[in-house]
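Researcher: Watch the backbone:
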Amino acid sequence: MDLIGAYRAFAHVAERGSFTLGAAAAGIPQSVASRRVAALEEHLGGRLFDRSTRRAALTPFGRDLLPSAKRLVRLAESVEHEARRAKRRPVRMAVPDTCATLDLAWLDADARAHDVVIDFHRAPPAERADLVRAREVPMALLAVPPDEGDWAVPLGVAGVAPARPGAVHLESLRMDRTTTTRRRVLIQPEDDVPHVRDRLQQVRDAVGLRPSQVAVADSLVAAVAEVLGSTDLLLCSRAQAREFGLHWRPLGELRLARGYDLVDPTGTVHTHLSDAIARCLGAEGAQ
């Protein structure tokens, strides 16, 4: 027998003096309320209501037990409330700085439908890995080579000048007699990882560019500011280029991509929210 449900039916019927009204207040059919009260009477060994009248009048036995029944119902409701709160306690998740606020908000909204509330912590790749190792966050999007991750984000370069058809070759950034400025490709902190940075710098050296022409910026904001005020290029995804109002083109000498793997001990976010995560990362094909 569902004792809590039986006591709840008993309390609602007693308060309203009617099985019909009491059942409605408890959110159950009248027949269910009647069965639960009858089962409770059998369990307690005494009549709770005088059924010789049209109203659900309490017997002396029922009046004596009603205060305790109400306390039990309130306690059960309190436990249920605390259980709901515990399930919705925010879970910290380390995410890239590149994730847009609106996309993170949609990810959080989608997660709440699965009783998960996310507290986002933006951080660069190395810091996200450190937070996981130190167990300061239970969830994180870690930077990995694209062939080892669950999501891949193709990279290219973007600038203020309208994009020409085709790819950008790094060798085109070499200075000659017709150029007066040394154009650069700026690497944002999110791409300061070996599988992106080292490969790009190897091509830089192979085509004869200066070391300063392919360099890591101090911050994403600083990198975008430099690009907006010059002919420099930003290494970024298509989604970021759209966000910053820049014109994006792929690289000619190599294909680069960010790779991401999710640390998710529960598996809930990975199973149900893969598309929302892809949208946050700017993975191509994300809706």
The chain has three domains: 3-86, 91-147+261-281, 149-259. The chain is about 45% helix and 20% strand. The domain at 3-86 is CATH 1.10.10.10 (Arc Repressor Mutant, subunit A). The chain has a mean pLDDT of 91.
